[in-house]
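EI: anyone free to look at a 251-residue chain?
SC: sure, send it
EI:
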Amino acid sequence: MKNKVKKIIIMIIIFLVVFIIYVKTNNNKLNYVALGDSLAAGQTPYKQIGYGYSDYVANYLKENKLLNNYTKEFAVSGYRTTDLLNDINNNKKVKIGNKKQGIKTVLRDSDILTLSIGANDIFYKLGITNMNIDLDNISEIYKYIDETTTDIEKLIIQIQKYFKGDLILVGYYNPIINSEYSRQLEPIFNYLKENSIALAEKYKFTYVDIYEIFKENPEYLPNPSDIHPSNKGYEVIASQIIDVIEQNIIK
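SC: here you go
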């Protein structure tokens, strides 16, 4: 009888040790989700989904033994702010690994969220999607940026109902930096940036500014008939996000 009790005690101790090791190891790892449009999905300048900034971030976490789970399955090319808001309201489900998961569950389980959204809203209004810019009604464009900012605010509020981790909003760049319209577009993007920073301060998330980086490195946009970055462009965006992670999340 004593031997039996002794064996049970030893088994319990072994179980507790294994459990403690598992908990400590698991607590150091992070669940990462990338939401938004084609930038979050990693669309290339040649209309394919490739290795985007979120993949570089996930790889950084993995190499540093910090990654538990990662998905960009909810990021969709062409998405506007209201599309993502509808996905959350409708609890859109996608296949992640071997099972379907709803976006609300993924948000609840995630520690880091990167978000690229709003660019399609603005680009569409400017006509940048077909590279035929119309700047005749500048005042209407600023009004539209205000409307887009309101939509982004609604989205942030909805995300934060479920997500309690570190939210990083990726900023905007001028996709036609080499065009004759570039200088005219600069105050428009600055206004969008100011609005985004104000939201970040209000809702306690991080805004990553990438405007100047792309302005100084137009080679990051290699296809003059497409608005998406090269691999190097995505890698540079990722480096800005990784700086935030190192300074504010895993310090």
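EI: Residues 174 and 211 are 7 Å apart (CA to CA).
SC: 👍
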